[in-house]
Structures are given as C-alpha cells and as structure tokens.
Amino acid sequence: MVGEQCHAVRVRLSGSVATAEPAARLAAVGPWRLWVEETAVGSDEPAAHRLRAAELNRPTASVRCVLLRHRDGVADLVVVADRAVLDPDGLARLVEVLATGAEGPLPAPSARPVAPPSAAPAPDWGGGTRGDTSWGTHALDLPSGPASTDILAALALTLHRYAGHGATGDVAVATDRRGALRIEFPAGSPVSALRSAEPAPTDSPVVAGVVEPTADGAPFHLGVPADHLPCLAPPFPLTLALLPRPTGGTRLWAAYRRSHFSAGIVEAFLRHLAHVLGQFADAVPDTPVDDIELLDAAERERVVLLGRPAGPPPGAPERITDALARVTAATPDAPAVGDGTSVLTYRELDEQAARTARGLVARGVAPGDRVGICLERTTELVVAMLAVLKAGAAYVPTDPAYPADRLAHTARDAGLDVVITRLAEYPADAGTPVTPDELIAAAEQGGELPGDGGPDDPAYVIYTSGSTGRPKGVVVPHRNVVALIDATREEYGLGPDDVWSLFHSGAFDFSVWEMWGCLLTGGRLVVVPYLVSREPDEFRDLLLRERVTVLSQTPSAFSQFLETDHAPLAVRLVVFGGEPLDARMLLRWFDRHPEDECRVVNMFGITETTVHVTAQTLTRELALAGSKSVGPALPGWRLYVTDVRGRLVPPGVTGEIRVGGAGVALGYLGQPDLTAARFTPDPHAEGRRYHSGDLGRLRPDGTLEHLGRIDSQVKIRGFRIELDEIRSVLLEDPEVHAAAVVVRRDDPADPATAHLDAYVVPAGLDPAGVRKRAATVLPAYMLPATLTALDALPLTTNGKLDAERLPEPARTAPATPAPVGTEGTAAVLQEIWSDVLGTRVGLDDDFFELGGNSLLAVRISAVLRSRGLPAVPLRDLFRTPTIRALAGTGQDA
Amino acid sequence: MRLTGKTVLITGAARGLGRATALACADEGADLALLDVCGDLDGVPYPLGTRGQLEHTATLCRKAGAAVLTAPCDVRDLASVESAVALTEDRFGRVDAVVNNAGIAAPSGKPVHDIGEDEWALMIDVDLTGAWRVIRTVARAMSARRAGSIVNVSSTAGLVGYRHFAGYVAAKHGLIGLTKAAALDYAPTKVRVNAVCPGSVRDDATAEGRMLAEIARALEVQVGEHEQTFTEAQPMNALIEPGDVAAAVVYLVSDDSRQVTGSVLTVDGGFTAR
C-alpha cells in the first residue's frame, strides 16, 4: 500500500445525491464500501480543502471511495485506487458509475504496473535538498496536445542535455508499466529515429519516468471537472504524466522528490521538455536530434542576462598609463610602492619609470614592441613594467626562478629584443639582457617618449602553461586592465587608504590585479620579496609591519598562511584567485576575522579574460556549506555556459564556461589558428568570447559554480572521476587542512593500473581515519587507493599546487606481524587476503593501507564465492576495512 | 500543523485524557481513529466511556477539520483490537501513531493482601496487557513501513508507589517496562515507543474526565480534600490540565521527536523530581 502505486480522483457531486445512491452503485460494481464523512465544515472552508487533499493523498491497497459531505450540502467524492486494481480507464469508469449512475462493469487493468526501478542518485543539476523526504508537484499547460508516444523520447533527450558536457548518447528512463528502458540516440541520428525507437529494457537506475496513460494511449479523461493525481507519490524521482485540461488540451504534470530536485529546476525542466515536445511535432523527420533546442528565444535572452549582471557603466576605454597619470597628478607625494628597502612616491615612480622608458627608447624600443622583464620582486620590477608601457611597448614578464629553457622559449616565442634583467646567467639566445641601471644610464643619451597610443594596444603578454604543448602568450590590451579596476573599485571600496601586497610573480597574472589594482586606485603597494612569500611567518610579519589592508592569495598559499598567528592583521579585504577555493578552509580565518571586519572574496579568473571573471563574497555561512559558487560575473564581463555546440544550456546544467565582455584578451601571440579557435564572435553581443575549457554551471541566481577543467575529469576503470570533488570531500574532514588528489599508474602503459593517490595536511593525521570518513561519502571507485599525510603541499612559484613534487605515496606495511587467528570466518579471510595482497595480514590491518583496491576486492570476493562463502560487498570493505570488523559483520548477518 | 497527513489511533478516546489528546491531534492536522470500550466492565466500580461520549469527541475533532473514524473496542479482547485496527487501515490506509490511553483506576483502595485474584487480573489486563495487544496488532505494519510512533499513557504511578493502589501501580510500572522493551524491539525499524507519565490531572468538565474523583472515592476521601492534597504534592502547586498531557503526546507522535524512543516523559508539575 504505497502512494507510488496509487492514483486518485476527486469530483464534486450535486447536493441532491444521497448517501444511499453512490453506496448502492458502488456495491453493484465491486466489493468496496463507501465511507461517508460528515465534515462539520463548509465546502469552501480551509478545513474542507485540507480534508479533500488528505483523502486524495491517502494510499490504499485496493480501492477506497470516500464521500465528504459538507455542512453546506455540497459533497466531494474521492476515489483512490491501486493502479494494479484499477487502471486509468477503470478509475474513470468507476467515478462515472458513482457520480452519474452509469452502468458497470469496470474494465480490468490493461497492464499491471511493475515495481519502479531503483532511483538514481540526485543529479548534480537538480538543486535538491539532501535528506528531504517530501515531494512536490508542478504542472505546465501545453500549447498543443503532443503525441503521448513522444513523451519518453522527449524526456530522454531533455535528460541527456541536462546531463551536460560529455554525456554519453544513451539515457535510462522508465514507465510505471514497462520499468526501466534504455533510449539511445547516436550522434547525428534524425528525430524520426528517436521518436520511433523501441526502447530496450535495462537495469540501470533512473532519475525520471512516466506514469503511462490509458491502454489506448489516450490521456486519462473524465466527462466532468475533476482533480486527478496520476500517482500519490513519485515512483521515479521525477515522475511525469500527461493529463487532460478541463478546458481542453493537455497538461504536463510532474511530481518530484525534493531530495533530488528544487521547484525552480523542475519548473524549467518542464518548460524545456515541452519545448522539445513541440519541436518533435513540428520537425522535419530527418532533422538531426542535435538540432533540437532546449531553450526558446525568450529563455535564451533571460539566460544571457543572467550571465551579465548590472553594474556601474564601464568607463571610456583608456590606457593604463593615462589612468595612472591621473592618480599621480592627484596625489603626487603619496607613497606608491615600497619593498622594505626603498619607497617611491607616485611622482618618483612616474619619474623613474619615465627615465627608464627613455632608456628603452634609446635602446631602440618602439611602440608596439615587446620587452621582456625578468626581475626579482622589488620596486624595480614595478618601475620596469610601467617604463615599458610608457615606452609604448608591451611587457613580457618571466620569473627569474624559471629554468633557462623556459626563459629562452618565452623570449623566442615573444620575439624579444630587449629583456630587462639582473640575472647573470640569463640564457644567451633569449634577447639582449639589459639591467635597469643600464637603461637609466642610456636615458642620458636622450630619447623622447612616444606620443599616446590607443587603449587597444597590448599592455602585457603573459605566458600560461596549458595542459598540452608549450606555454602560450596571452596578449592583453591596456583597456582590459583599466576595465578590471573600474569593475571592482566601487564594490570593494578600493582607494588611497589601502595598502596592497604584491605577493605574486610578475609572470603570474594575479600580480596584474595586485599591482594595477593598487596603483590605479591610489593605494600603497608593498612588494613581497620572493623568500618572504615562501615563509608564512615572515610574510605575516610583513603584513603586520606594513599594515597591509588588501591581501591577494591563492588558496594553496593561504592555507599555509593560516598556520601562522594571523589574528593581529589589519587586512580588510582578502581576494582569492588562481585556483579553486574550498570555502571550508576559511572557517579558521573567520574565527579570528569576522566578516564585518574583513571581506573575503573569491574571484574565478582566466588569464585570457584579464585576471578575474567573477567574484563571490564569502561568509561563514557559505564556508560551512562548502559553497562552490564563484559568484556572478564582474560588471562588464559576460558569462555563458554552453554545450559542445556553443548553445546556452539551462541554469543548473553543466557546460563549458565561455567569457565575453571587457576582459577578453586580444589572443595568443603568434598563434592565429589557436586564437581563432578559442576566441570566437560572441553571438549574444558585440566582440568575441573566450572558450575557457573549464566546466561550470550558472545557477538560477546568476552565480557561477566552477567545476574544474574539462580535461581534469579522468576515467578510472570506466568511471568518470572528478578530482576536485574527491579533494573537496577530504577537506570536509575538520582535521584536514589541505588536500590534493592525483591519478597515477603503476605501469604507465597499462590503464588498469591507474589509481588515485591522495595527500592531506597536516602530517599528524591518521590516514585510516580520514579514509573511513571519506568512504561514507564517496562511491567506492572515487576513494583514493593511498592516503598520505604531509606537513605541507608543495607549491609552484605561482603559489599553486605543484603535483609533480608530491612524494611517492606511503604504503604502510603491517607494523608488527599481527597475531593470526585460527578459527572461523576470520581465519579464512586472513588466508585469502594474505594471498591476494601478497603480505601476511593481521586481523586489524587495514585492507587499503596494505595496498588493496577495488580490483583486489573483487578478486577476494571471487575466491570467497569459489569456496561457497558469501562475498564481501565492496561497500562493506570501505566502511570496515579490517578482517576483525568484517568477520564480526558476517556473524551478525 | 505538526501532524498533517498522519492517522492517529487513540484508545479510551470517549472522554478525559483521550478526548483532550484527540482534539490536540486534530488541531495539528491529524486524522483520527477513536476507540473506546463504550460500555461498563464487570468489576470496575464506576461507569466507563459511552458511545455518546465517543461520538462527541469525534464531532469536536471534525469541527477542527479532521477526518474521523469511531469504533467500539475492548482492549481486553485481541479480536476486538484487531478488527478496530483493520477498520482503521481500510479507511485511512495505515496507522501512523497509536496512543494507548485506555485504562482503569479501580478496583483499588486496599492493601495488597486484600486484592482479589480477579481484581488483580482485571487491572493488569486492561492497563498493561491492553496496550500490549494494540502494539502487537499495529507493530508489524509500522515496522514494514519503517515509521510509526506508539505512545503509552502511564502515570506517576509507573514511577513511584501509591498506597493502596498496588494493582494500578504494578500495571503502570509494567507499562513503562513494556515501553522500554518495545522501543528496543522496534528501534531498528524506526518505530518509536514512548511513555507519558501524567501526575494528578484535573477532572475537566468539558473533557468529562473522572479519574481524580474515582481515585478519591477508592481512597474514601472527599474529592476536594484529595485535590488539595495532590495539588500540594506537586511542586508547581497546581493540578495538571488534560491539555498539558495532550501536548506531550502530540510531541511524541510528531516528527519533532523522531530520535526519541524508550523515553518516559513526566507531566507531573515536578512530583517525581523529589
């Protein structure tokens, strides 16, 4: 007697219908009694509505007929039936018999409902609330009555599109009579093939299904107005039915479990399903399935606006040098930049940069040229960058810590003639090295600064290392940098009272934000020497000494910084960038620095779109929730999430992040083909948009969730695995301060030897405990094979995780030869484990610590079965990875 | 509305605590199966609930918007209990909660050695075994659905002794024992079993309660005198109102108490705190 199997109808009976009439009519057609409820309330009172709803939603094992007789003489007849006893035809007929005195008999059910297939886990796009056991309904009137045979195919296609980037071309759906069905649509197949395909039974779990209409395919129909519930609880997490509208036409009805879906997502899903159904009806038969759209024009417009929040109107395009000249003119004597040994005022900065620029001109640098800069983090670095701009050229920063061949590659690729550096061992074939002193000396030989260039001139070229190939140079024009500062100045109150740290290498574009963000808003820039940036305690001392107010950090570097005593800092704004942030890490920061004292902002960004794209202010609440939101687009930036064909996907659905607007770079230096492929015309606005190669989803509120690189999704033994997700679960453990997960192969040539190695900080952690906790959340195939505790994660010079420098994972052998039991299940398990794992196993040794993985677990189960013993479910093994625990479980069972 | 969509079965619902509990459940949106013996029992020296009183409880609940089923039920008779539960399941589809409220206060008023074999057996049969019969009838279906709440109305007499009430005290102590054991039996299937222990409850006129009066009569004291004694015995210096007990029952029936099982909730103005 469960609601999933029942359906129900309510009709209004005229007051003249006496109790005896329907009771006698009922007795004539079935062995059921009529329950009469004198309600003691009027038919329009809230209590009567409640009673009607209660009766409609009360499941039965066969058929229940209830007559609610209200005080005002009006009566409601509610009939609830198990669909196995009365199908929609039978239910309609019974209501007719009771309400109008029509003759029986009732038709026998044409096909019995089958047990619903197992429910798939909540989809990531569903917006459901974990643990919510309630359910809701939603309905949408369709403009025309679609063929009910189309509903499964349309549902499958809509689900497929919602599954997002890289989803395979088959989907499991279900009906209440046919169970789970697999629907395939190979790429390029026509709509007609999908519509006429005979779905094959499958045992896959399903997320959505249809309660089928009556035997002849016609929707349930009654001659009188009625409330009709096709099911009293959704048999599938999302359950659909086509219902007749009282006024004619068809209604698309849905019941959904709130554990899986939010109301907003279901509403949108029905809209998209209806749009697909409409196109099915109208499409030419050989229209490719891929051409079917989810969004109609109006909705596309809404989604476009969602990725384009309102903000202050952008200022006129401007060169960095012009914007800085205004600041310098306003506060010439204010301190501009210092590195602990020297401080320059804005005027001094301007003068030194102008002198150096004249030196560059004297060395033959002309507007439009590119000049290399390879300097340690000192005031000199800032002067040199400004000097290059004043000379009308673009700077190409590299880090003195880079290996020689990388410096040489950059110099060659960028065609550098002049490189400002103090490196004695600067590679010979990488442009002409010149020191800042030499440039200042050269300035004495004259050399006039060029006149004004335009805001579209390149300002810098920063090299990014992609996942494949050599680093490529991203060319960013002046106006983008000025737009970035304009987009943030007001929101974050950036101004002359601020003190900014310049923590990052000039070769990492986070430094563009730190440097120009400070100087274009009149603040004081504190250059952090490289060695100080590597020592969290020294860095803390510097922040304290210089009273830094705006701190920009990568999450990896910040997690190390959090180990220091950071309580006394004067920081009022922390900006994260460069890496995905796990918001839970911030709890330790908020403990000392409540949100009203220090604002914490996570900015998702891409070098190709000028440092940042979105901004999310974080709160303790979001940190506790482990929010993955990176916020809405910055004013002037435009955010799109698209499918592989570049079409917008609905909010909530995973797709590729594409970015248009004020931050889009000019392209890749010297790579017109790559530039044309990655920077394409923006179909929704003027200009171009950049294809980020990152996965994300735009939430219905316009905030973006960043879901990692498309190519960081790895497959292990057929499972699609998202490393960031595993990392995020490890970080949920309050003891874990930082975590990293990598894929390695024991035999590089053999994909079957691929496994996940996890690293957690601090070193004192108990890996078995961390694993046990993770096992309660992660599916078995996502559990790391090894878990190694470290003092700190290795970082690159840019402050990001350096995966290459992670140590070999710790594989713990049993510390002492454990006592070996001799009896029963435990002894047998011990023998088999020892055999499979190739080491002597004690009762309390952890399967995974000994190098066990899911493949070995399968082998153990195979041996057990071959001896006629019950296999050990993998799930149990992850929860209780020792023989003692397993043997105990077995005896109870 | 904390009980919307729940069907609550209440024994001894004709009057007193049963009626107050039924009304409180109706106010919280529950639908009700109201059972009562609807007749006098041999050996009980005072009139028990009547059919008219039971229907009056039903009318009050319907006015509060509840769907109500009434049925006579003698908790001494397993067949009677089973048929009332079957009728409830037929009408409402399932029983979400049971309030084992049916009970008698007399024959009482004598020392242990003066209690007759029949008197002892009757008291245990109604006040303890009656609850067991209801539990055994509903528990299987509740366990299968992995949901359900059973509330046993015990008494402070289930926690301490009262002079000359050995049968009642033994039955109510036994009911707490049954509560705890059943709680453990059904905890794995998420069915909860709890007890409420009212202190001295005022005989409310509209609830038609008469417990206090019958206890006074058994002890051969004036009702006014007895009320006075018990008011002073309860540290909050007041008698318990039927609605106070009903509120405790509603809490235990509702999902607010979804992790509460095997508990004994006293509503006694502090009487057992001493």
Task: Give an overview of the whole structure.
Chain B: It comes from Streptomyces prasinus. Chain B: This is NAD(P)-dependent oxidoreductase. Chain B: Belongs to the short-chain dehydrogenases/reductases (SDR) family. Chain B: InterPro entries: NAD(P)-bd_dom_sf (IPR036291), Sc_DH/Rdtase_CS (IPR020904), SDR_fam (IPR002347). The complex is a heterodimer of chains A (893) and B (274). In chain A, α1 (20-29) runs antiparallel to α3, α13 (478-489) packs across α14 (510-519) and α23 (824-837) packs across α26. In chain A, the strands form 9 sheets. Chain A has a 7-stranded mixed β-sheet, with helices on one face. In chain A, strands 27, 28, 29, 31, 32 and 33 form a 6-stranded antiparallel β-sheet that branches. In chain A, strands 2-3-4-1-10 form a 5-stranded mixed β-sheet, sandwiched between helices. By secondary structure, chain A is α/β, with parallel strands linked by helices. Chain A folds into 6 domains: 3-100, 2-Layer Sandwich (Chloramphenicol Acetyltransferase), CATH 3.30.559; 135-294, 2-Layer Sandwich (Chloramphenicol Acetyltransferase); 313-479, ANL, N-terminal domain (Rossmann fold, 3-Layer(aba) Sandwich), CATH 3.40.50.12780; 631-709, Luciferase, Domain 3 (Luciferase, domain 3, Roll), CATH 2.30.38.10; 717-805, 2-Layer Sandwich (GMP Synthetase, Chain A, domain 3), CATH 3.30.300.30; 824-892, Non-ribosomal Peptide Synthetase Peptidyl Carrier Protein, Chain A (Orthogonal Bundle). The longest helix of chain B is centred in the middle third of the chain and has 29 residues, at 117-145. Chain B has 274 residues and is an alpha/beta fold. Chain B is built from 8 helices and 7 strands, in the order βαβαβαβαβαβαααβ. In chain B, strands 3-2-1-4-5-6-7 form a 7-stranded parallel β-sheet, sandwiched between helices. In chain B, α1 crosses α8 (242-253). In chain B, 44% of the residues lie in helices and 14% in strands. The interface between A and B is medium-sized, with 22 and 16 residues.
